[in-house]
Design goal:
about 30% helix, 4 helices, alpha+beta, 8 strands, about 160 residues, Pnp Oxidase, Chain A
C-alpha cells in the first residue's frame, strides 16, 4: 500500500491584503459558479477552456474540516506534459484561499479537470527560483496575477500539479 503524501507547508497569512466580502459574494454568485462548472464540463475535447482571458481548470479538493468535495474554477497554466501551475492568490487577500488549505492538508486527494479529462494530481509547493520562474510564466500569460503581490504581504503559494 502506498504511503500517504506528506502535507504541504502552509505559509503564514499576511497582515495586509485586498478586502473582499467573500461570504456575501459566495451566496450571491453561487448560481453563476454552478453555471461556470456546468459550461466547463460540457467541453467536448481535451482543449483547456479560456475564461476572462486566461486558461482555466477545475480543481477538486476534500475539505479539511468537512471531508466533502469542493470544486473551483481556477486559472491553470500548463507546465509541461500533464502538469499545471495554479496560484493561491485569493485576489491579493491577506489569507490563503480555502482550496489551498484543503489541498495542503489533503494532498493525496486532489483532482484536476482540463477540458474533458479528469486527472488525479500530486501537488508540489514551489519555492525559490522554481517558484519565481513559474510566477513569471503565469504573469506573462495573465498579467493580473502580478498585481496581487502588491496588495498583500503574504507569500502567495504557487503550486505545480502533476498527473499522479
Amino acid at each position: 500500500m502506498a504511503e500517504p503524501t506528506k502535507q504541504l507547508d502552509i505559509p503564514p497569512r499576511g497582515t495586509r491584503g485586498a478586502w473582499t466580502p467573500w461570504p456575501l459574494l459566495v451566496r450571491l454568485f453561487r448560481p453563476l459558479m454552478r453555471g461556470q462548472l456546468s459550461r466547463y464540463r460540457k467541453a467536448t475535447g481535451p482543449t483547456q477552456p479560456v475564461m476572462m482571458g486566461m486558461p482555466t481548470v477545475l480543481l477538486t479538493t476534500i475539505g479539511s474540516r468537512t471531508g466533502t468535495e469542493h470544486t473551483h474554477v481556477l486559472g491553470g497554466f500548463q507546465d509541461g506534459d500533464d502538469a499545471w501551475i495554479v496560484v493561491a492568490s485569493n485576489s491579493g487577500a491577506s489569507t490563503h484561499p480555502h482550496w489551498f488549505i484543503n489541498m495542503a492538508k489533503n494532498p493525496d486527494q486532489v483532482w484536476l479537470e482540463v477540458g474533458n479529462r479528469k486527472l488525479k494530481v500530486q501537488p508540489m509547493l514551489l519555492k525559490g527560483p522554481q517558484r519565481e520562474a513559474a510566477f513569471a510564466k503565469v504573469v506573462a500569460t495573465s498579467p493580473r496575477y502580478g498585481g496581487y503581490r502588491k496588495k498583500t504581504d503574504r507569500e502567495i503559494p504557487i503550486v505545480r500539479l502533476k498527473a499522479a
